[in-house]
Amino acid sequence: MREKHSFQDAFTRADIETPFRYVPFEVPAGARRIEVSYHYDKLGAPPDEETHGPPPDNAIDIGIFDQRGVDFLTGGFRGWSGGARSGFYVATNGATPGYIGGQIDAGQWQVIIGCPVLASDTCRYWVDVSVDIDPEARADGDVPATRGDAAPPPASTGERRWYRGDLHSHTEHSDGYNTIPEYVREAGRRGLDFLAITDHNTTSHFTEIAGLRPETVLLIPGEEVTTAWGHANVWGFDGWVDFRCTEDGGMQRILDFVHKGGGLFSPNHPKVGYPWLFSGVKGYRVVEAWQGPWRFANSESLEFWERRLTAGERVTAVGGSDCHAIAPAIDLHPWTLGDPCTWAYAPAPLTERGVLDAVRAGHVFVSEDPTGPFLELTAECDGKTYLMGDEMSAAAGSPVTLKLRYRGPAEKKLRLYRDGGLWQEAVADGEDVTLQFELPLDGPGYVRAEAAGFRGRPERGEVVHALTNPIYLRPRT
Ligand SMILES: [Zn+2]
Ligand SMILES: [Zn+2]
């Protein structure tokens, strides 16, 4: 037996401040499968003559909540595909990637409709819902927990070393083109030790990751909280994180919710494109200071991060490729898994907790790809050794020795920045060099390092090849 519902409405200019709305429908007892399809007015204008890119067009996003309701943070989320699909299904025995299958309880379910871009004065949309009912079928089990039953193991206590990874990628569970097993193979080929899969606004990939547990690469389940005012990665949080906010207050509640649940929250690519506009949100401890190729406006992201540091905050810089496709899928971006590469200093054998604890502690540097350059900043003071991310606390005036270890092409510029300004610069006179600098611990602040140089023709300017997190200086008086 099949029940069908059709809905039609429109977004207008007056609606754009409240971009989400809900289409309720009743699900009877015995429902086994819900199918939803939709379409909307598209302008379909020819490509822009100046940019050769597509002209602005309407965009309408879609997702679904079950009978548990649509409350902010605690609603009964069952999936989201943004604008990536024209339809989806949720069934007792499966679901479209991006959606969460399992038990279908009777009650009022709601399709969520979002309008991130309104290019015309009005955009009409049509939604068709069909519900398959089999009253004879036995009831299924619960909706699967997003990680399955497997809680992440605690960090191991083995010897620490540097591991290479990528903290930002998208699969078929949102708008990426590849499956998770395809990413696992590619991560192995690129030499990555860990890979976070951070699909947009959904957690449907968590169960698949929990079931895969590949030996070649540690997969970290994450979610990219994606709004029209900025994106943020969440790792280490067991469950769905809401994205339905339009101002600082809502995003602050999301961040606090993530931290309370033990997760990490990182504003992503705070630069042109999809910049981070939630400027009043406070308390995040990570920022994606480098996304994709350096020339893609990453100096803006670096400045964004450095402003946090000069304001006295302790925020770990990480990198993320934001990869959406690998061969043989169609190339969506010039962004490759592992470019840039985030290096985390973690105990063996590598665990998710080990990677995320390293990120939390700032024991991280970022290089342009998994082959490097390697760039490690350490310091010695008063008989103790400090790694980037650490706070050096010693008597004011104590002598400090900073060491910068670089492995990469010769002739690159190695720079130390202190409290936001260039402090030291040297040229690498070999492919494996350690530079040493002395300073007195004469005031609070921080020191961080970069390796930079030309790639391609010099007139295109320098790029950053690697950057470290800071060592924080805290003299005791
Ligand atoms: Zn993003
Ligand atoms: Zn992304």
Fold and architecture overview:
The protein has 477 residues and is mostly beta strands. The chain contains 5 helices and 29 strands. It has helices at residues 180-190, 204-212, 248-260, 298-310, 352-361; strands spanning 2-12, 20-27, 31-40, 59-65, 77-82, 87-91, 94-95, 107-117, 122-133, 146-149, 160-166, 194-200, 218-227, 230-235, 264-267, 286-291, 316-320, 341-347, 364-367, 374-381, 384-387, 391-395, 399-407, 413-418, 421-427, 432-440, 445-454, 462-468, 471-476. Strands 11, 12, 13, 14, 15, 18, 19, 22, 24, 25, 27, 28 and 29 form a 13-stranded mixed β-sheet that branches. A 5-stranded antiparallel β-sheet has the order 1-9-3-6-7, with no helix packed on it. The radius of gyration is 24 Å and the shape is elongated. The structure holds zinc ion (ZN) (2 copies). The site of one zinc ion has 5 residues, from loops.
* Structural class by sheet pairing and helices: mainly beta
Outline = elongated
The bound ligands are: zinc ion
Q: What's the average pLDDT? A: 93
Helix content: 10-25%
Beta-strand segment tally? 29
CATH class bucket of the largest domain:
Alpha Beta
Low-confidence stretches: none
What is the tally of helical segments?
5
Count of the separate structural domains: 3
Over the alpha carbons, how many angstroms does the gyration radius reach?
24 Å
Strand proportion:
35-45%
At the fourth level of CATH, the homologous superfamily of the largest domain is Metal-dependent hydrolases
Distance N to C terminus: 78 Å
Largest sheet: 13 strands, mixed
